[in-house]
């Protein structure tokens, strides 16, 4: 099930499903140590007049959204069978590691009733049940789950009183379904402690008058010791839950609106999704510098691993989105992270965990019995290319100087030397992580990165290095145009390889090949080769379906359900085409198609603004990892480029002058 809402503060990341129930709880790293694991759940349930209905029951109609222009969950749940309406406001406190929910319950019947609200916790601490304990803590009037250096304190307040019912138990072992079953009769057994596969449930009894409404608070404080969670709990009670809710709302509202973008001619849905996308990117950005691809652990149910790693590729685009929106202090951490994990030889590996250790991979070190680097060279290139965007936004030359020898020079020299006899980058895995060869996209990215490195070198007075990088970039550009262009079709090859003394061409039409040519400046935006290629993109890899959009490449099988289409539309590739239209636009009318594509993206986002990796071309269903951080980054980048273009045309200012606010 896709994640309908993600909330985080850089240390803690909490994900809710379509039932507004917590399915992922990462701490103390974003994307590392999921203490629910995606296969367990923190339930919400309601008991009244002899009926128990957990939020996953079909009698509930639930819409998980987010508050406009702030990083606050906004969920509405209606149950006509129970005669109740509920509103949940959710936050991860921006200052401390606390997940907080405000739950309002409205009785839509004319008579007074007793209503019990239950919250069930199924933790898998350290992603293993070995050593887990759950117990009622009379010191803090809370339930505490702990294992070693991971502690989670669960508590709440209703009319300044603690929960009035609780139990701990075991689940998924010894024939036990879980303690949530204990709540079915409206009473819990108050078992004070359990270990192993330990879970818990707490309950609040509300007396609600006819057509009346009552509210309560529920929270989980996370720490490394019981003492730390006690202190967080005391802090929350002292400050009050209302204060934490308000201050978190105000902080994120100010964080989002600090640039005062004009958003000229863009409708409200696009503007709202722009803000929601920035919040998703920030939630997936660990405070130590990693930017994970997705927090959706349901991917584990379909494959061998999740997307909760940092790919330097995805992270580079996310860093650029943050830099383009005035958040360079955050993106800087990614480049510091990169500086620490880059290899001595100057390349990045496939992916990394948020603690800077190496992530899992399917790229082998040996091909046909010979040693080969298991890398996607575009990831090395994109990091340096994104660093130039960071400098343009921050103008922090001292930071660039501090990275020059250890990151910029090291990677640039690798890219200069890691080339074949044609002058192109040597074979590596493509950005889609599927094929091995010399790709147009990677070649273009390396060209862009070496030009960026040349700018840095010359800026710092290192003319020899700058000339070396620029010369290599020119050689790569010439080789791209000579060896990777197919004059007969007007396309650029997806990739080439060598066999039996000759070149083997992969003529697959790939959106990344097209994007790389204009994004990194290999071809002028008005070059006729680019124009011809763009028409082939529209004709050959745009699914002829009700949804539309642009696929990755012709014949893409990943999550494809129908062989009659070239592949599912991806948010990333569709927005790449919109960025091409922006770059090519000569007047404001040329930008109408861009707004159409931005509207398309907002149409297929969830009410919370969550964007997926790809979309079912016939139903519009969100497919694969949801949310995908890269999708949100491309949406932000596209909107900013649209505003830049309007300013360039003299239509309006990108930013509203502060004196007019």
Automatic annotation (TrEMBL):
GO biological process, one term: carbohydrate metabolic process
Top-level taxon of origin: Bacteria
Gene source species: Candidatus Nomurabacteria bacterium CG1_02_47_685
GO terms, molecular function: hydrolase activity, hydrolyzing O-glycosyl compounds
Lineage of origin: Bacteria, Candidatus Nomuraibacteriota
Protein's name according to its UniProt entry: GH15-like domain-containing protein
PANTHER family: GLUCAN 1,4-ALPHA-GLUCOSIDASE (PTHR31616:SF13), TREHALASE (PTHR31616)
Sequence ranges assigned to domain GH15-like in this UniProt record: 288-586, 597-637
